Amino acid sequence: MKYSEHQLALGTASFGGEWNNHSYRPDHIKQARIAIETALELGITFIDTADIYNYGKSEKILGEVLKINPNLSKSLVLQSKCGIRFTEDLKQIFYDFSYDHIIRSVEETLDRLHMEQIDILLLHRPNPLIEPEEVSKAFLKLKQDGKVKNFGVSNHTPTQMRLIENYLEMPIIANQIQFSILWTNIMEGGIQNNLQLVNPSGAEGTFEYCKIKDIRVQAWSPLARGVLTGNISDSKDKQLINKINRIKKEISDLAKLYEVSPEAVVIAWVLRHPSKILPILGSTDPKIIKSCAEAVVVKMSSKDWFQLYRLGRGEELP
């Protein structure tokens, strides 16, 4: 399957349970295996991970699943990310896009996954101290050594992508960003431009730029941590809670209209965007994965899409 043909992806950030530096357990491996097998049954073969997820445990657990069933790796597209590092006490993060760190990070990822090659490597968040020459040198080395097939970025603006592209000898094929009904910041400027005062973020035009350059947009946290479909928000902000409740009511109504689960409505809203966004599903719960998979058959109308968009912005609807 071509990269552009994947409709959904399974994320591994929750592999290993709560983030800590404890050892992973056999039940963590079992949970991850069931999640991956469920995804495969639904035709989801794209797996997203990162070197920092659960302090490296997520990749180790994924590697254990692949070791149990070596044939799985032939069916999967594996993507990882690098560039974020923890301080020794694990309490702070900093960014490192140096040649040495990128090379070392990929080698450690491959070791954890028991693989010789990954399909895609993303730079994990923008780094204000980036030296694009270093990134280009590292990417070229990894490509030549057969350790990474393709490269991309995460959470980058058009200008940040252009800077990197200017030095690369291969194309950027992906940009993974936060995007959901509750998080539409990346397109606010473009929609509200010249209508009201908008605080520019530098991210305006990200979807358009990616479309022009054939860079696939991936959405992380498309379910907004499940607060729109079942999970209880821990926010103390009454205004936010009221907004969430209004959205949940609309999602419930649309779920009945389209005859799918609420999760499918939320994911279908992301899929409705013409950028052909690839949602990264963060749950390991087979029931939720199956519910999300229903989204691929939903043909959401523009009217319903904008209704959810306006509610996500906190607008009071008539």
Structural description of this entry:
The chain has about 325 residues and is of the alpha/beta class. It has a single domain (about 5-225, about 260-295), classed as TIM Barrel (Alpha-Beta Barrel), CATH 3.20.20. About 40% of the residues lie in helices and about 15% in strands. The chain has twelve helices and ten strands. The strands form two sheets. An eight-stranded parallel β-barrel has the order 1-2-3-6-7-8-9-10, surrounded by five helices. Strand 4 and strand 5 (about 95) form a beta hairpin. Helix 10 crosses helix 11. The mean pLDDT is about 95.
| Largest sheet geometry | 8 strands, parallel, barrel
- Biggest β-sheet: strands ordered side by side in the sheet: 1-2-3-6-7-8-9-10
Distance between the termini: 45 Å
Report the structural category: alpha/beta
Work out the helicity level: 40-55%
Figure out the total of helices. 12
Whole-number mean pLDDT: 93
Total strands: 10
For this structure, the CATH topology is TIM Barrel
Question: In sequence order, what are the helices and strands, one letter per element?
Answer: EHEHHEEEHEHEHEHHEHHEHH
- CA radius of gyration is 20 Å
Unreliable runs? none
Percent strand: 15-25%
